[in-house]
């Protein structure tokens, strides 16, 4: 199994956490999103992932894309330990939390979107950062409410063991810290982040601990 990854990609970070939690051996292939004009833009990488995004996963000579699809694939093929609850409501709740990050926050704040703001639209650095902070707060306010609206959250996003929701939330919180977002208004998110980062699987997946970190 090979994971095509970039150490700062929060989408790749999600998959690294899941691989670690499940104890799956996986070779990492670095695809630098900045060097050489962006190694993801090459025709060689486009043959692996036509979207020219990371992560991509190769297993048995077959290539898969999109981090949430990869998380579900790992859950299907390596069901122990489970990262989705056994009950239908719980699975829906965890998936909703995943999608709140992957569909509502991340697409507005990823490298591609920020580059378009500053490069094509000519937005200055202050306006770019205001944009970034706005969408983090919009998303985190909703996620904080989702986490506290019922008894689903425990030590982690759902209960007392990590799920795919934690795999998605922690990288987004990392990005918030990196861009100087004050997350003091989200105590449940901060508590869950701390619980996750205390686990070796999460700690090993941190961007600064990756072989391609620079």
Supply the key terms.
Glutathione S-transferase Yfyf (Class Pi), Chain A, domain 2, Glutaredoxin, 214 residues, 54% helix, 2 domains, alpha+beta, four-stranded mixed beta sheet, 9 helices
Structure notes:
The chain contains 9 helices and 4 strands, in the order E-H-E-H-E-E-H-H-H-H-H-H-H. With 214 residues, it is an alpha+beta fold. The chain has 2 domains: 2-81 and 203-209, Glutaredoxin (3-Layer(aba) Sandwich), CATH 3.40.30; 88-200, Glutathione S-transferase Yfyf (Class Pi), Chain A, domain 2 (Up-down Bundle), CATH 1.20.1050.10. A 4-stranded mixed sheet has the order 2-1-3-4, covered by helices on one side. Helix 4 (88-109) runs antiparallel to helix 6 (125-148) and helix 4 runs parallel beside helix 7. The longest helix has 24 residues, at 125-148. The mean pLDDT is 96.
> Span between N and C termini?
24 Å
Give the amount of beta strand, in percent: 5-15%
H and E order:
EHEHEEHHHHHHH
Number of helices: 9
Task: Provide the structure class.
Answer: alpha+beta
Helix content: 40-55%
CATH architecture of the largest domain: Up-down Bundle
How many structural units, i.e. domains? 2
Give Rg in angstroms. 17 Å
Number of strands: 4
- Shape descriptor: globular
Report the top-level CATH class of the largest domain: Mainly Alpha
What is the CATH topology assignment of the largest domain? Glutathione S-transferase Yfyf (Class Pi), Chain A, domain 2
Strand line-up across the major sheet: 2-1-3-4
Q: What characterizes the major β-sheet?
A: 4 strands, mixed
What is the assembly state of the chains in this entry? single chain
Low-confidence stretches: none
């Amino acid at each position: 199994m090979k994971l095509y990854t970039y150490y700062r990609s929060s989408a790749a970070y999600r998959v690294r956490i899941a691989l670690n939690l499940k104890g799956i051996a996986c070779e990492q292939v670095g695809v630098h999103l900045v060097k050489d004009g962006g190694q993801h833009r090459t025709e060689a990488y486009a043959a692996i992932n036509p979207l020219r995004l990371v992560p991509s996963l190769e297993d048995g000579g077959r290539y898969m894309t999109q981090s949430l699809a990869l998380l579900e694939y790992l859950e299907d093929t390596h069901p122990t330990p489970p990262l989705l609850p056994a009950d239908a409501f719980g699975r829906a709740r965890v998936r909703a939390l995943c999608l709140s990050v992957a569909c509502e926050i991340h697409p507005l704040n990823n490298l591609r979107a920020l580059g378009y703001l500053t490069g094509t639209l000519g937005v200055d650095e202050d306006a770019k950062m205001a944009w970034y902070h706005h969408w983090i707060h919009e998303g985190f306010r909703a996620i904080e409410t989702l986490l506290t609206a019922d008894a689903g959250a425990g030590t982690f996003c759902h209960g007392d063991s990590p799920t795919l929701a934690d795999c998605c939330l922690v990288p987004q919180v990392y990005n918030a810290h990196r861009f100087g977002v004050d997350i003091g208004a989200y105590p449940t998110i901060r508590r869950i982040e701390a619980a996750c980062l205390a686990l070796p699987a999460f700690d090993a997946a941190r961007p600064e601990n990756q072989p391609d970190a620079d």
